[in-house]
Amino acid sequence: MKQHRLTRTVAIAMAASFALAACGDDSPTTTADEGSDAGSEESGEEGGEMLSGDVLASGASSQEAAMTAWIAGYQGVQPDVTLQYNSVGSGAGRENLIAGASDFVGSDAYLDEEEREAVTDTCGDGGALHVPVYISPVAVPYNLPGVDGLQLSPDTLAQIMNQDITTWDDPAIAEDNPDAELPDTEITVVHRSDDSGTTENFMEYLSAAAPDSWPHEADAAWPVPAEAAAQNTGVIQVINDNEGTIGYADASVVTGQAAAVGVGDEFVTFSPEAAARVVDASEPADTGLEGDMALELARDTTESGAYPIVLVSYHIACTAYDDPERANLVKDVLTYVVSEEGQQAAAEAAGSAPISEDTRQRAMDLIDTIEGG
Fold first, then answer.
1. Domain total in the chain
2. pTM (2 decimals)?
């Protein structure tokens, strides 16, 4: 098991980072393992351990707003820890964890079988664990002046994204929107240019909800040539600047119109509450690690009021680190993120749905299994 500090430094220096040097009060977040002085300087008033050092993370741009809030909140409870997050995309984040270039990563998709095998070179035989930290809808933003409240059934949306429907006045769109005056404007699909967990989540929805209209397997890379933009913010910028466009992006960055999607006999607009309903209906994924919290999301739900295009973004960390100090720091950061305070900070900054109390407790138990040394 190797944590490559030089590799980590080089990889992270190549991307824009959100770094806040901790400089707040003296309230600690966690209590360190008994007998360990890893990364500590003193004990706080509440009996927890004050830590010092740096934590380098990278990954999903969907977490960008939430991570900024988490970094700001964490600086107040651990003033001598510097936490950095590089918004490089889920795929690049997972690669960084496998290479030992990040202490933990954010990802909108859990490690696949090949990645789970590869990460053991860095994380040891136990591999990596997944902690769900961010629940958010994947919105379908569009730019079509004069058409408010656009509604799209799963098959219609899939045909638009596959470019089988190419103009806004297509009969399928008109059927979904009987009261709208649809122009004959050409449709421009905007997708992520970088490998993205948001892309993979969106494609998983299309495959599950409209299998006859979407022939592509879910992947981090978009399969149909169209207009491309980097990261969620890039997609939104292109859509906002160009009429006739439609795409997909984490709801936290959407500033304009977004379509309601068909669920059963109704059309549902995105909201954190509607997204959380899908998560509640989902089953655990089999990652081979007992207690792991990766999920198989119920993309094809017909539950009333549920918004089915949803992502659960994880923090993925090693189950063990060579350095006890590093393990202690990672555990402390993750514990803050899943705490009630951390989840509320993300909700206020990014509009995400806070995890439930049951999920929080299971996450705390999982984080506590991280070993060092």
1. 2
2. 0.72
